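Now for one record:
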Amino acid sequence: MSTLNRDPESKPQTPQSSAGPDRSADEQSATFVETALLLSGKSQEEATKTGTIDRADDEVELLFAPEYQTTRSPVHRAVWDQDFPVELFRSEPISADPELERRFEACLNVVREHQKNGTHYNEQGKMTDALLQDLGEAGYWGLLVDREHGGSEVPFQLFARFLSRMATVNPTVAGLGSVHGCIGAVDPVMTFGTPEQKRKFLPDLASGRRLSAFALTEPGAGSDLTAMKTEAVLEGDHYMVTGEKLFITNAVPGRVIGLVCRIEGRPAVLIAQLPEEENEHFQMVNYGLYALAHSYNNGLKFNRLPVPRENLLHIEGGDGLTIAYHGLNRGRVALCATAAGTIRLMLANTLPWAAYRETYGQPIEERELVRRRLGLMSAYIVACDAMVEWCGSLLDQGYRGEMECIIAKIFGSEVQKEAAIELFMKTHGGRSFLKGHLFGDNVHEFLAPCIYEGEGEMLGMAFMKSLIKQHGKAFYEPIGKALQEAGIKQPNPMNPSHLIALRQAAVPYVKWRVGEAFNWGASPHFGPLPDALAHHVDEAGDRIQHTRIDVDNLMRKFQLALADRQCAMADLSQQIQDQVVTMVTCLYAARTEDPLIIASADVLSQLLQTRARGHRLDGKFFKTVTSLGKQVLDQHGRLTGGIDPEPILMPYK
């Protein structure tokens, strides 16, 4: 379970319940982001709303012991610290004991058996109740629930790795495992629930008697969660909920949902059990949706829906947004894990087609372009596996992992999209669009993860915000306040009065910047690595360490207008993310000592580092990636784990 504010050797602790939704005077003070927006001329409304989100982020930070907060995370330290935290970028896999492995295999077999018998989807194409029930009996829905309440209490690294396996059998089932366990009701109740709330909800959530969803998004509140309008008013022993939610996965009558709403003007989370049937208080909103074809995704309308007062989740010093953000990191890693399994599915269905399809008398598996595509699929699978293992390990150790999990989510969703369109579809040609083809039937499933758990570029800017926040507080906030007090809107270093106004506030920043000018920095030392990977890791380490000047230059150039420079922020964010993925993938591959995985990491690194240098891919890369594609062909099934490919459609021989 998540490690909250605690000593490293102690067990995780649940946050103390708060007295209620009132915020103290200290909590009402402006955040760094709010102050910066006001100084930049933004409206009070925008500054206040953004400050609310920023404050929720601060409150999540306080749930974790200082050594596990964002400023002590691997990426933050790698950018800002003088000493590169080499060991924090290495991960060690943990193994499932025989009993847990049997449970994993039982869950996989349930899905395989239903698919074999054609009982996995109903007449609407949605997962059948029988499949969901059998998964519950196999223990699938209780993997993240503690043993005390009927679950398996699986470490998150093992859970995420298992989702990759499940995705090779059925990606929708893997996705629902994440919805239920990571962003549904399980994580909020496990982390923030009182003992009474845990006894009330967790046994049913562990057994699958009740499945869960998380109701956050609204018609007018997506990225801007401060626009949320759903409201709960306390009347006697019940909250009466009125409002509408949109795009809620697994929203079915009878589900247990984490319902984010406003109580007395503040975000809050109620654990609500939806009625078994629609009534005057609760209606489903149905719409046509291309993605999530095999799961239920609906809107929910509430008109004074009664929810027992004791179902309100409390958190000391926080609110509903704090609770909502807590589970998102797990969901982001789970998304990357599902991508790893989904790309394996694509690879498993490309290999037989590449051997079967001929052009000009030769199977296309002999062609360079096809081998390049196979090599890239292999590289993406290995990188996703590496990110999942690394992030899962960090979360199990107790790190918040905000920045690291964002990288995993963005990378996994983007390479899944690329693999689907550029590698899988183009190799299969016109057959991709036949009904019954893996691509044609699932194209929206392959693309939609770019939006799930936060749209990629928006998350990239959130990554940057986490990266610059402490630096801004330490150096830029004092300068901004000094300018405000002096009534200076546009500082001019040639104006003596401006220099006098800033003389004290600017001293810490000047010292830091001068120190950096004379700090050549020692390159991080990663120990012996395979020759194919060593230079990639060294280059990535150097680039990450030197980005702190790039980040500071961006802050200095745009100053208070930085929030509006979204393109520049997204671009620099992506540069840093690429270096982190390179390093994590290479260190993961080196540990395995597997030639195929090492070659895959080499290809991935060449691709990302060439992009970082602003160069075009060259003959060396093409030779390396096509050679990897040949290895994938020669070692048929190594990376796909025995997936049975689908029949070739419209065979012509």
